[in-house]
Every structure is written in C-alpha cells, then in structure tokens.
Design a protein that fits this description.
Blueprint (H helix, E strand, L loop, with lengths): L15 E6 L5 E2 L2 E2 L3 H15 L3 E5 L16 H11 L3 E3 L6 H10 L4 E4 L14 H8 L4 E5 L20 E3 L1 H15 L5 E5 L8 H10 L2 E4 L3 H8 L14 H11 L3 E2 L3 E5 L9 E4 L8 E5 L1 H12 L3 E5 L12 H11 L5 E4 L3 H8 L8 E2 L4 H7 L5 H4 L3
Parallel strand pairs: 1-4, 1-7, 4-6, 5-6, 7-8, 9-10, 9-15, 10-11, 15-16, 16-17
Antiparallel strand pairs: 2-3, 12-13, 12-14
Helix pairs in contact: 7-8, 9-10
Length: 391
C-alpha cells in the first residue's frame, strides 16, 4: 500500500497525534469480554508514546441513538488500556470542544494517552460532516488511521479529518492492507481459500473475486446447501437461498473443479444445544433434517488441499460453531491451518475470527483481520474510503 506518508516518515516527536482506532469491543456489565481489537492497536499506541507524543485516541462503540449513553462509553476501554500499558491513561468525557482542549493543555509535550469519548455520540460523525471533522482535528498536529474495521465507511473521523492534518496509516491498518492485498497481488501459490458462512448472497461478489484469484475455493457453512439444491439434491430443512440457485449453477459450470463442495454433512433435527448429530452423504439428507456442519470425509478432503497450500485465506465458519455439537468441522479447519508449515495463513474477519479465538488458535495464524465488512469489501476489490483518503 502506497500512502502519502507512513508513520515512520512523519516527524512526530513531542507532537499531538489524533489516532482513530477500532476499539469497538463487546462489553458486558462494564467488563470487556473480547479485547482483540484493543490488543491489535497497541503497537501503534506504544510507538507514539516512544516518540513522546500526546495521543488522542478514539473510536466508535456500539450504536448509540444520539447523545451520550453510559453503556456505550469508552471509559472501560480507557481503564483496560491503562492496565495494559501500566501507565496513566486519561479518559476525556468528549471528543471535541473544551473538555478535549483542557486535557491537551495539561498533557501537551508529554508521552500520554487521552481516550476521547465515543465518536458516535455525535450524528455528524457518520454524516462525514466537514465542520465536525475540523473540530476533531483542531488540537492535533497529525492524524493516524488504525481502524481497518471501519475503513470501508466515509466518516468524519476516517475520511473528512484527513483534509486538515498530515496523515498516515497506523501499523495495524498497514498490516491489514498488506496481508489482504497479497492475496491478489502476489500470493505464494497454491492459494487456497476456505469460504463459509450462512449465505451466498452476502458473499457472492467476494466469492467471484476469490474464484478468479485462488487455485481452489473450499466451500462450507450454510451457503453450501444452495449449491446442493442447484444440483437437484435433497437438502431437507437446510438453509437455502432459492433466489441464487441459477447463480450457484452458473458458478459451478464456470469454475468447475476450482470450486470444491462438501461430500458429506453433519445433520440434526434442530439448531439447539444437546441435539444428536448424524453424518450422511450430501446426496442423502433426509427431508426432515438440516445440515449443521461439514462431515468427516469433507474435513479429510479439505485438509488434503490445505496441506499443499502456500497461502490460505479463510473467511466464514464451516458450521454453526457457536453450538459445541456443530463446531467440529470449523475446529478441524482451525487445527489444519494452525499446523501448516511455511504457509501464510490469513483469517479474514467476522465469525472466523471469533472461531479462531474461541478455539485457541489465534497465535498460530500469520494474520487475523480485525475487519469484518471491511475485509470482504477489500477482497471484492472495492476502494475503502478510509484507505483512499490516505493516498
């Protein structure tokens, strides 16, 4: 990724730096339940502190309806960052205006992190309001975007602010673009894509792009059953998008053996915990059952493809992994990727990341993307406004 500036090229020493991070983490009863995104931002924050910068750090959190809401406050995030850094972190009750000005005056010229309040408390943020963008920028010397998860949206804090300050990507944003970009630009081959999830419709554009780029695309999850029905197979009560049957048939005809479908499935009577599971061929799903996971023969087939890979991109679980009885296929793919040697393994956002973290393989992957929608749009070849602004 060629941006106008890099973090290393900016003369940051002792300056005030506005950092747009993606700290949109799940919080329950005031406690953060998954801090993956916070940890992913720490490299940029620590680099700026090493440069003696006053860091103005902010983000979205949840979807407030307008104005301050306690449950969407970034205060718990500020507390957790202080625990990670073992240094004082200042929580500021606003993201623009007098509160921010006072805090900066107190800490300017010092290595300090000021966590500004949730940008979404202002409707002007998502409208990319020019005056709001100016207000965000007015106390800073530089702007750093480290929020890949929202780079596909043109908001005041990801797009409009760039007009006012010298700007650069943070280390996380640069890493995301470099890794995901390598899938198309110059991958080590064979490039194997594992694509799961529930619907063809939500991933149709990315599926086409990845079929063009990949040596093989291994399909799992609910989307597989749309392909089976397009072949005239009985799928019982399994998830299917009838509007996409023709498209599914066309993809199978166009890409042939490059598009690899499951050969067996785990099936059940209902989607709930404690259900018994049967394994059947994908041509033998009873009318009163539904597919909930890929089967053991498919696991073996997919793992044999993965063993030959030099690059693996995974987006979307193989089954309903949130339920233990239906999680085995997803776990086997996790294990297979984790055990690959001399292979670049990329997990491309969303439920795949949740699965990798839940199953304890996060530290075995080359790169885990923090962006769900952003990852998919980037892999489709779309221009991300938050990235384009830095060019």
């Amino acid at each position: 990724m060629k941006t106008k500036h890099t973090l290393e090229s900016l003369k940051l020493d002792g300056k005030v730096v506005f950092v747009r991070a993606d700290l949109n983490v799940p919080i329950k009863d005031g406690k953060i339940t998954d801090e993956t995104r916070i940890q992913a931002s720490m490299q940029t924050i620590e680099y700026l502190l090493m440069k003696n910068c006053t860091v103005l750090l902010t983000s979205h959190l949840g979807r407030p309806k307008g104005g301050f809401e306690e449950k969407y406050s970034l205060k718990p995030v500020a507390t957790r960052i202080q625990e990670i850094l073992h240094e004082p972190v200042v929580y500021v009750k606003d993201c623009i205006g007098e509160e921010v000005h006072k805090a900066i005056q107190q800490y300017k010229g010092q290595a300090a992190v000021l966590v500004l309040e949730n940008l979404r408390f202002y409707p002007e943020e998502e409208k990319n309001d020019a005056d709001f963008a100016r207000k965000l920028s007015e106390h800073a010397d530089f702007y750093v975007n480290d929020a890949f998860g929202t780079a596909h949206r043109a908001h005041a804090s990801t797009h409009g602010i760039v007009a006012h300050l010298p700007s650069a990507p943070g280390f996380l944003l640069k890493k995301e673009i470099d890794y995901l970009g390598s899938v198309f630009q110059n991958p080590k081959r064979p490039l194997i894509t594992v694509l799961g999830g529930s619907k063809v419709s939500s991933k149709l554009s990315v599926l086409k792009a990845l079929l063009e780029a990949s040596d093989k695309v291994l399909v799992g999850g609910g989307m597989a059953f749309t392909f089976f029905k397009a072949q005239g197979l009985e799928i019982g009560k399994s998830l299917c998008e009838d509007d996409f049957l023709t498209e599914a048939k066309n993809l199978m005809n166009q890409y042939g053996e490059k598009l690899v479908l499951p050969v067996d499935a785990r099936i059940s009577q209902a989607v709930s915990e404690g259900q018994s599971v049967q394994v059947v061929s994908c041509s033998e799903i009873p009318a009163d059952m539904l597919g909930v996971d890929i089967g053991p023969a498919t696991e073996k087939l997919y793992l044999s493809h993965l063993k030959s890979a030099q690059t693996v991109l995974w987006n979307g679980p193989m089954g309903i992994f949130e339920i233990a009885e239906f999680a085995l296929g997803t776990k086997r793919i996790c294990e297979g990727m984790a055990n690959l040697k001399n292979c670049v393994t990329i997990v491309g956002g969303g439920d795949s990341v949740a699965a990798v973290n839940q199953m304890g393989y996060d530290d075995k992957m080359s790169h885990i993307s923090t962006g769900g929608g952003a990852s998919l749009e980037f892999l489709e070849g779309k221009t991300l406004p938050g990235v384009a602004a830095l060019m």
